[in-house]
Design goal:
Protein name: Protein HTATIP2
Organism: Muntiacus reevesi
Order of helices and strands: HEHEEEHHEHEEEHEH
CATH architecture: 3-Layer(aba) Sandwich
Mean pLDDT: 85
GO molecular function, one term: catalytic activity
Oligomer: single chain
Helix content: 25-40%
Pfam family, one: NAD_binding_10
Strand content: 15-25%
CATH class: Alpha Beta
GO biological process, one term: import into nucleus
């Protein structure tokens, strides 16, 4: 209970800072869940989606969400989309088997790195890299020297409900809630590597708050 009360206080303090956030890849499963949680928690004063197409967001809860449509092949032309955000979540990604090796490299390596470069230039302080990334990609983003760089490495990434998760599988919602719980916690660490246990520990803090 004490941990939950501390988390609620951290969230409130975070909201008072009126921070801006962007999500790359909000059309994918992780991005969709992340957007929903961000809006439900009301952590950011401005929420921007950056993607290759505009998403249909009809619900009232999404009315203040900004959308920036970019061409990932010409990202330098869209540098303004990355300007003025305090926190960034990169949820870009594709399956190697489904997309093929060439497309996998273009999305998971080239697009991610260029987006990170523009985010850094645009003033982003805290960059979050969710699962399904190559280690070499993590290292190259680290070279950009964000004020805070958080990497999430769960075990088997699962779309199953949290109640069905095993010791090694981590549902998307668990990772998303851990990401947000981590974001509101102050940290002096330049780089954070959050493994399976750390993700579950971060998520556990709001157990009394979420079904």
């Amino acid at each position: 209970m004490a941990e939950t009360e501390a988390l609620l206080k951290l969230r409130e303090e975070f909201r008072m800072q009126n921070k801006s956030v962007f999500i790359l890849g909000a059309s994918g499963e992780t991005g969709r869940v992340l957007l929903k949680e961000i809006l439900e928690q009301g952590l950011f004063s401005k929420v921007t989606l950056i993607g290759q197409r505009k998403l249909t967001l009809d619900e009232e809860a999404y009315k203040n969400v900004n959308q920036e449509v970019v061409d990932f092949e010409k990202l330098d032309d869209y540098a303004s989309a990355f300007q003025g955000h305090d926190v960034g979540f990169c949820c870009l990604g594709t399956a190697r088997k489904k997309a093929g090796a060439e497309e996998f490299v273009r999305v998971d390596r080239d697009y991610v790195l260029k987006s990170a470069e523009l985010a850094k230039s645009g003033g982003c302080k805290h960059f979050n890299l969710p699962p399904l990334r190559e280690l070499i990609m993590e290292a190259r983003v680290e070279e950009l020297k964000f004020d805070r760089y958080s990497i999430f490495r769960p075990g088997f990434f699962s779309s199953l409900p949290e109640s069905w998760a095993s010791g090694h599988s981590v549902p998307v919602i668990t990772v998303v809630r851990a990401m947000l719980n981590n974001a509101v916690r102050p940290s002096d660490a330049k780089k954070e590597l959050l493994d399976n246990k750390a993700i579950h520990d971060l998520r556990r803090a709001d157990d009394p708050l979420k079904p």
